[in-house]
């Protein structure tokens, strides 16, 4: 490979194929390349033996290289699932290798957002139950349901509201407050009259105590 920047003019899958062919005919071992930029380009070329045939086989949009890479990454995740491997462990190792090869601290690189899945089962005659999965792993979740439909009495509503607000983390409490201030369907809550949906915060004197 004669240039440390073989990807400068790459725009299509055909361009990538040309870079692959040039690299194959003039193969360079990245571990023996003194120029760090050239070594990184060589490592990128090594991936082309997978990317180019994949893009050609899947009839991808040859002008949309981002989609080609995203589709390949998605299918690699499917492959990991079939092999019983943890994709997030694979990704962490890949980030570590990439960090070592680029001189970046992989521990400070932004992590890939995990896939979050929720299974909600609603009983028309009972409560809704939810199961939460992060990266395919079930996790314990606290569910807060604000449903001001028929059947609520004001005192029961307040007890549930106050319990939820007390149990929630600060960030979730702020979200709950925004919904509790004017819950949809609130007209069906019986016995509220003109009471505020959210009790005013207690006033504090100069010493910071309630008065």
Main attributes?
single chain, 211 residues, mainly alpha, 2 domains, three-stranded antiparallel beta sheet, 3 strands
Q: How would you characterize the overall build of this protein?
A:
- By secondary structure, the chain is mainly α.
- 45% of the residues lie in helices and 8% in strands.
- The chain contains six helices and three strands.
- It has a three-stranded antiparallel sheet, with no helix packed on it.
- A hairpin with a 2-residue loop joins strand 2 and strand 3.
Radius of gyration: 28 Å
Record field, number of beta strands: 3
Q: Order the strands across the largest sheet as they lie in space.
A: 1-2-3
The residue fraction in helices comes out at: 40-55%
Q: Any low-confidence stretches, pLDDT <50, length ≥5?
A: 202-208
Distance between the termini: 78 Å
| Order of helix and strand elements from N to C terminus | HHHHEEEHH
Give a short account of the largest sheet.
Answer: 3 strands, antiparallel
Strand content: 5-15%
Average pLDDT over all residues: 81
Q: Characterize the overall form.
A: elongated
Quickly give the structural class.
mainly alpha
Number of domains: 2
Tally of helical segments? 6
Region (Disordered): 191-211
Write the layout of secondary structure elements.
Elements: H1 13-25, H2 36-57, H3 65-83, H4 87-102, E1 116-122, E2 128-134, E3 137-139, H5 154-167, H6 170-180
Antiparallel strand pairs: 1-2, 2-3
Helix pairs in contact: 1-2, 5-6
Region (Disordered): 191-211
